[in-house]
Amino acid sequence: MIVSNRLPISISRKNGDLHLQRSAGGLATGVGSFYKSYESLWVGWPGMNVQKKQEEERDRIVDLLRQEQCHPVFLSPYDIKHYYDGFCNNTLWPLLHYFNLFADYNPKTWQVYQRVNEKFCDAVMEVARPDDVIWVHDYHLMLLPQMLRERLPDAEIGYFHHIPFPSFEVFRHLPWRKEILSGLLGADLIGFHTYGYVRHFLSSVRRLLGHEHSFGEVRTGTRMVRTDLFPMGIDYHRFADSAGSTPVQKEIAQIRHKYGKRKIILSFDRLDYTKGIPLRLEAFDALLDKKPEYRGKVSLVVVAVPSRTSVNSYRALKKRIDELVGRINGKYGTTDWTPVSYFYNFLPFETLVAFYSAADVALVTPLRDGMNLMAKEYLATRTDGTGVLILSEMAGAAEELGEAIIVNPNDQDAVIEAIEAALAMPEKEQIERNRAMQKRLMRYDIEHWVGDFLTRLGDARAVQVERSEQVITPGIRDELVADYAAGKNRLLLLDYDGTLVPFAAKPQKAVPGDATREVLDSLSKRPENEVVVISGRDRYTLDAWFGAMDIGLIAEHGVWVKERSGEWRMPEALSDDWKGEIYPLLELYTDRTPGAFIEEKDYSLVWHYRRTEPLLGAQRAKDLKDDLLHLTSNLNVGVMEGNKVIEIKNNVVNKGRAALNWITGQAWDFVLAIGDDRTDEDLFEAMPPDAYSIKVGLAPSRARFNLVSQRDVLPLLRRCIGGEKGGASEKKGKPGREKRLIESVAPG
Questions:
Q1: Could you tell me the pTM of the whole model?
Q2: How many whole angstroms separate alpha carbon 374 and alpha carbon 423?
Q3: pLDDT per residue over 496-544, tens digit each?
Q4: Rounded to an integer, what distance in angstroms lies between the CA atom of residue 273 and that of residue 311?
Q5: How far is residue 497's CA from residue 506's CA, in Å, rounded to a whole number?
Q6: Active site residue 336
Q7: Which of 105, 179, 314, 432 is 20 to 30 A away from residue 218, measured at CA?
Q8: Residue 458: exposure state from Cβ atoms within 10 A (0-12, 13-18, ≥19)
């Protein structure tokens, strides 16, 4: 199921009847050329207004489109004005293309954008089946993936972003930036044209939502979302084969007759300020001014397809282009030579291919472009291998088409030099460059692009399913509660930070709240239970918080242990002589990283960077870890990376070794261990095979099971307490194990 703003088929009224025609645009042209070869359905706007009361006409449109494997989303003129012309093209389009000064942040259009995304969601739900693969396209529908996820939690959902994704510093201007990112993260796979766009997206997700990522996978707390690059291809053979067709060859002959022996430079774009058309005209003006020998020998053909004519900035752009074309032609034109041929209209496919085939040079110099398929289309039509492509480095296609002449469109001298080089390039060199690019485009054409994305989407969903199998389901939870209730000798090993309590910006603020104390107190008062709280905190802090409770404690990840009603002791003889060598390095990194600080414990040092700027903190942590590994190579200490911390401690100490004091002390018929970060992996590894080891979060782990988030920990422990009470009630014949369990869980 393909979901996009526009359908590949547009419907219009002519002479009182409905007429279908192909839609313009890269997605409609590319995917629209073969989507019917799949068992597919395309959901989108059909391009015309149909009022709600016109039910008969709506039904006719649905029937007509069903024959084309399409399903309509009906939008009102108000929707189009505020959703499409408004938020999509007056807010998102300029912002995502780095034209922030053109962006209008209007709460009204944002509200309509949300509502229209909901309309698309409703339309999908009308026709969706449980096993459908849903592929959402482009910036018009950035909220839709999460909307679909909420209504189809098990669906396979992909999203592809067809325009640039800007750097964090630009994207952060958007007032609704978090909502947009959260909307996208409803997908299993998010695709972009280039690695740069992937990197910018991941940076924004990390800085704005706080989600970590690794190797392109975003950990959202509830799911793992993959990101990757898929440079969009074209229907290569459609363009290549059409170039030799009789209608196209006739048009080529007409074009050549019109321009004679003059070299043709083709500029073909949708009329948009991101395309850099005025700069292109100014460069051509400067070329004719500085190099009079090109006058009368070169013609620039400018095709500007009308776009968003109701938007003020686009009307101003057209006026500017009209003036430039008039100035150049008035300045240099003669009775038999017009320097610039200007077409402000949509060209039929055969005419477009004819211009591609006839042009000696294609001048494709956008100021910013997600991909730019025109560059690829031009190359596909050059079946004899001749022709020269001048391509902006700001276009996504520049990363694939390195054999083209790559220029900065803002550098007028460089553009002039590129035009001169293109006009003078020997035919042999043209063919060598173009053949290399053509082979690449033939291999990774539009069908390959679609297949690649869908394969990766299937892989991403398979990983989601595999990981979800380890997530504690209601069935597994009930089994755990039942085993707990049946246990006569129970051991509970509970990590503190990130498990019993959420993380805090400052460690001293993560004090146990009433809910945590109540759960620990209830668990510790059961004579069958041995409760042990495991922490990286120092023993004095743990004593202050839990000293009055009848529980075991492990401090500094195992340096100190304290059994119930016992005293603190060190299981291993340790030394802190190494601290003097390590501390100055930590101070250096603290001074260089605003927000970082050092925590000193009896036998360990911890460098915290939770409050730092995320990317800076991550980079500094990586560099610090590398330096520490060199510095500690001859010391009996290890460098351990935790959640926003780097800890240096003695090698012989870890949570697993400390937990063995309890695990091997006696036989247990129920063991539960819960933790959230890398330091808890040693604990999970030390567990008996039948123990309930639980990792908080969805990262890969040695634990048998996962809980989605820290918020699920206390409710699970309350379930155990409530389940035990319910079991006792049933044995005594009292009513309501279920009632008692509900009462005990309700507060959580």
A1: 0.78
A2: 20
A3: 999 999 888 777 788 999 999 999 999 999 999 999 999 988 999 999 9
A4: 12
A5: 12
A6: no
A7: 105
A8: middle
